[in-house]
Amino acid sequence: MKTLIVHAHPEPQSLSSSLKNVAVSTLTKAGHEVQVSDLYAMRWKSGVDAEDFGAAATHPLDVVHDSGRAYETGTLTADIAAEQAKLLWADTVIFQFPLWWYAMPAILKGWVDRVFTYGFAYGVGEHNATKYGERFGEGTLAGKRAMLSVTIGGRESHYTDRGINGPIDDLLFPIHHGILYHPGMDVLPPFVMYGTTRVSPEDFADAAKLWEQRLLTLEETDPIPFRQQNGGDYELPSLRLREGLEARGSKGFGLHVRG
Amino acid sequence: MKTLIVHAHPEPQSLSSSLKNVAVSTLTKAGHEVQVSDLYAMRWKSGVDAEDFGAAATHPLDVVHDSGRAYETGTLTADIAAEQAKLLWADTVIFQFPLWWYAMPAILKGWVDRVFTYGFAYGVGEHNATKYGERFGEGTLAGKRAMLSVTIGGRESHYTDRGINGPIDDLLFPIHHGILYHPGMDVLPPFVMYGTTRVSPEDFADAAKLWEQRLLTLEETDPIPFRQQNGGDYELPSLRLREGLEARGSKGFGLHVRG
Q1: Closest CA to B218 of B149, B123, B166, B140
Q2: Chain mean pLDDT for chain A
Q3: Inter-chain residue contact B179 with A256, CB threshold 8 Å
Q4: What gap in Å lies between CA B211 and CA B55, rounded to an integer?
Q5: Is the pLDDT higher at B179 or at B250?
Q6: What average pLDDT score do residues B144-170 get?
């Protein structure tokens, strides 16, 4: 395996950083190649702006199409181009981050916003009355696997079917489906650690064992069975799920997972 | 009204920026006080790190508790303290941003991550076996209103009940409920503009009119009826919604809105 780990925590001794270190050592020992994008250590720039696109930036700035032209013509900044190259190199991408305000830390969102340019991660394939691009199961990153490893301060029950924060699968859906499956990656079930504001050495050892098991069984793990956009399940041009395809009782984001 | 507008787009001539300008002029003409946090213009720093907390930063860094101590002891950086002061000044907060990858732009997430410190936006009130803080309807920002104004490149049908991206209400739930209702704000239904990659001057004029109407009726608009955490609807300590309270057929995030 060739694994890219994208990591987002400011403290090298944090739980997130420790889990990242476990991933590096576990995968390396098992003979896999690993690259790490440690976003805080890299002082990753978070905000998309005209400077990202070099000579392809127009006035006024058109974020979507300027990013596409910059990608096509090779004028993206070196930091963005390097991350795109790592994604193309990898067959597996792991994201290690704390859930802050029910979403990614800003620095990781900034990695997505800047690296996932038009022509690379979206705007791929024909867009017309009978086709709305190659995405959700197709695209530049098709055939690669992605997995989130998330640390959460709150309690697990708060993130269950009836928990006050909403189900963790729904909170992660915009990342799993909207960011990772969108450019074609198969998304494995996440590794989630709860109650992380108080973790004893024993707790960490237990979590590290579970995490190692997930890492060592990555290649045999079935992805979340999201529905391909162009697999016949959606009406065109509305891209609404055809009636009757959903699993019994499913609603909302759950519709887009095969029963 | 005292309105704070938090705005996140790099191009002053963009649709997002134009809608922000409409909000400023509409509210000012109607006699309201307005402050704007134009995050790109302010070169807002997105990444939480030790520098945010001054003398309260520990080694190793403890993001949660160091942010709380920095808030308590007044050692947060001036940019964070200024945004907290604006939030305390405002009775209404509007967020204007493009939906990038089904979420806020990184720079706006960075505003949340850095400004919403422990003791200010979370970690408020007692946390014990019978109470898990004052949040979701209570907290520092209780009594204030919040509203999102979001521009979306894709088509509206893609964001409906059966649309491939998931329902817009579910995509915005982590912001509405998790970020805005969490520290106590009442959240008004969002203003959403779709298909924004191609907007004619006529389209913009129509949208601006609708937006003006929303702005001028802000004070009479009913908020989304989220359930208060401490209003009796949730079991303790699990914080799971009690059985039978949900509206017929609701699931997932929808459980947490009163029928």
Answers
A1: B149
A2: 97
A3: no
A4: 44
A5: B179
A6: 97
**Distances in whole angstroms, Cα of residue A170 to Cα of each of A166, A177, B173, B259:** 7, 10, 10, 20
CATH of segment(s) B2-224: 3.40.50.360
**b/e string for B204-234 if b means 16 or more Cβ within 10 A?**
beebbeebbebbeebeeeebbebbbbbeebb
Confidence class of residue A42 from pLDDT cuts 50, 70 and 90? very high
ipTM for this model: 0.98
Q: Output the six-digit token pair for A111.
A: 């990695």
pLDDT of residue B175: 98
**Could you give the CA distance from residue A195 to residue A212 in angstroms, rounded to a whole number?**
19
Q: Confirm or reject contact between B68 and chain A (CB < 8 A).
A: no
Residue ranges of domains in chain B: 2-224
Residue showing tokens 């894709």: B154
Nearest to B174 among A11, A171, A249 (CB): A171
**A92-98 and A33-38 beta bridge pairing:** unpaired
Cβ atoms < 10 Å from Cβ of A245: 16
Residue B246 one-letter amino acid:
E
Bridge-partner residues for B100, per DSSP? B103
Q: What is the average per-residue pLDDT within B224-229? A: 98
- According to the model, what pLDDT value does residue B72 have? 98
**Hey, are the CB atoms on A174 and B158 less than 8 Å from each other?**
no
